[in-house]
């Protein structure tokens, strides 16, 4: 890839991850980030400069006039506010793209500003509940879908430029129009985040002063509510901008909860069975997809007697078969009451090889 000049407005988990990937791809790429607050640059921006990911931190947006591409990586309402400022600054073939979780509103704003030829909406379908450059990774986007929403006037060569940049970051580009994007993400991401937060708040408001619910909360509750730890400002912005689609799916969800409540009242056993069975079948049919380093771990669990030497025996067996271990330790939780040995590997191949080997030595192996 020829070296390019890339601008970032908003430099947290996603901006930082894209910057790391682009710098790793070609250290000659020049990366600049906008320092928007009146205070001194954030720890993230300073850290990225020290890590030699960022070349320039600037308080002056006119410095972005040299950019080949600008990534808007702030909360969605803030991203929109930069379009009008950038319009008079950018060079004629500069691509302005965003990574925001909502596409319709920014698309509309770009068209109103006659930025059709420069703006291409973007949304990497990867991330986590973490925030900030500190949590970023050059591999965050690896094997993740990356939605692109061009305008009707996006020049084909500009779309191809962004598409190949996405591919070079090991993500999978998919072209979807802004309206369809907002319906899909409302159903699979935005409403689930609202549900997770509502569930946590329900428990918080129902707990007793000794916090027994909080103490006993485990397994399933933690799985389903992980995303409730996400950035409040980011989700506030998403709700304020994808309101129509979110309300549409929230209504369906509320209806389904009401149906369950009615089935409880009427003790409708067959409804309840089918409710769980249908959900389980669909959940089990979801494609297994690697979505990036942060979300993916290769691990197995095995029954061992919780005594001195048990870990060493397994570790030695793996080492003599040239299988590298990333992490190993006994864990106790509700799912494995007796305690199991959890072994984490760096890669899928090692994980599969270890599983076969340990089964051969008559260990009971659980893969998840
Ligand atoms: N967190 C995730 O998993 C994903 C987030 N997104 C989208 O990416 C965008 C960024 O999210 P994250 O990187 O996760 O959040 P983050 O909180 O890690 O980073 C956001 C950055 O934007 C900065 N910022 C806030 N207001 C600003 C303003 N007015 N001007 C310039 N910078 C400003 C913050 O200081 C922070 O550094 C959001 O639009 C979000 O919808 C997209 C995919 C996944
Ligand atoms: O952590 C998770 O599971 C997420 O859902 C991350 C995420 C958050 C927002 C997006 O627009 C896309 C992905």
Describe the structure.
- 46% of the residues lie in helices and 16% in strands.
- An eight-stranded mixed β-sheet has the order 3-2-1-4-5-6-7-8, sandwiched between helices. A four-stranded antiparallel β-sheet has the order 10-11-9-12, covered by helices on one side.
- The protein contains 13 helices and twelve strands.
- β2, α2 (43-50) and β3 (56-58) form a beta-alpha-beta unit.
- With 368 residues, the protein is an alpha/beta fold.
- The protein binds 1,4-dihydronicotinamide adenine dinucleotide and 3-(4-hydroxy-phenyl)pyruvic acid.
- 1,4-dihydronicotinamide adenine dinucleotide is lined by residues 9-15, 36, 44, 73-76, 78, 99-101, 123-124, 127-128, 131-132, 231, 234, 238.
Descriptive key words:
globular; VC0802-like; binds 1,4-dihydronicotinamide adenine dinucleotide; 4-stranded antiparallel sheet; Rossmann fold; alpha/beta; 8-stranded mixed sheet; aromatic amino acid biosynthesis; 368 residues; 46% helix; 6-phosphogluconate dehydrogenase C-terminal fold; 3 domains; binds 3-(4-hydroxy-phenyl)pyruvic acid
Unreliable runs, pLDDT <50, ≥5 residues?
Answer: none
How would you sum up the major sheet? 8 strands, mixed
**N to C succession of SSEs:** EHEHEEHEHEEHEHHHHHHEHEEHE
**Amount of helix:** 40-55%
Assign the structural class, choosing from mainly alpha, mainly beta, alpha/beta, alpha+beta, or little secondary structure: alpha/beta
Number of helices: 13
CATH architecture of the largest domain: 3-Layer(aba) Sandwich
Range of strand content: 15-25%
| Global mean pLDDT | 93
Strand order in the sheet with the most strands: 3-2-1-4-5-6-7-8
Label the overall shape: globular
CA radius of gyration: 24 Å
């Amino acid at each position: 890839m020829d070296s390019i000049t890339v601008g970032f407005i908003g430099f947290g988990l996603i901006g930082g991850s894209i910057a790391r990937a682009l710098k790793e791809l070609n250290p000659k790429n020049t990366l600049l980030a906008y320092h928007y607050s009146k205070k001194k640059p954030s720890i993230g921006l300073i850290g990225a400069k020290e890590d030699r990911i960022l070349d320039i931190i600037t308080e002056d947006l006119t410095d972005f006039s040299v950019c080949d591409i600008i990534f808007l990586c702030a909360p969605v309402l803030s991203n929109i506010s930069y379009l009008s400022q950038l319009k008079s600054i950018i060079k004629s073939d500069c691509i302005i793209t965003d990574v925001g979780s909502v596409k319709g509103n920014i698309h509309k704003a770009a068209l109103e500003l006659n930025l059709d030829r420069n703006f291409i909406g973007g949304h990497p379908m990867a991330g986590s509940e973490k925030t900030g450059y500190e949590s970023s990774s050059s591999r965050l986007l690896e094997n993740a879908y990356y939605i692109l929403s061009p305008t009707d006037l996006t020049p084909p060569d500009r779309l191809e430029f962004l598409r190949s940049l996405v591919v070079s970051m090991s993500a999978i580009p998919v072209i979807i129009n802004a309206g369809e994007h907002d319906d899909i993400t409302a159903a699979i991401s935005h409403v689930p985040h609202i549900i997770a937060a509502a569930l946590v708040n329900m428990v918080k408001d129902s707990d007793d002063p000794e916090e027994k619910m909080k103490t006993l909360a485990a397994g399933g509750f933690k799985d389903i509510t992980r995303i409730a730890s996400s950035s409040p400002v980011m989700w506030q912005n998403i709700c304020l901008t994808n309101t129509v689609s979110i309300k549409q799916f929230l209504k369906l969800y509320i209806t389904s909860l009401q149906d369950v409540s009615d089935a409880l009242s009427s003790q409708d056993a067959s409804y309840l069975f089918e409710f769980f069975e249908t959900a389980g079948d669909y959940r089990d049919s979801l494609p297994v997809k690697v979505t990036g380093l942060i979300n993916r771990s290769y691990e197995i669990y095995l029954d061992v007697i919780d005594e001195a030497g048990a870990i060493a025996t397994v570790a030695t067996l793996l080492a003599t078969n040239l299988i590298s271990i990333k992490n190993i330790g006994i864990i106790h939780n509700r799912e494995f009451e007796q305690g199991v040995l959890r072994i984490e590997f760096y890669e899928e191949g090692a994980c599969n090889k270890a599983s076969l080997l340990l089964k051969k030595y008559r260990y009971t192996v659980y893969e998840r």
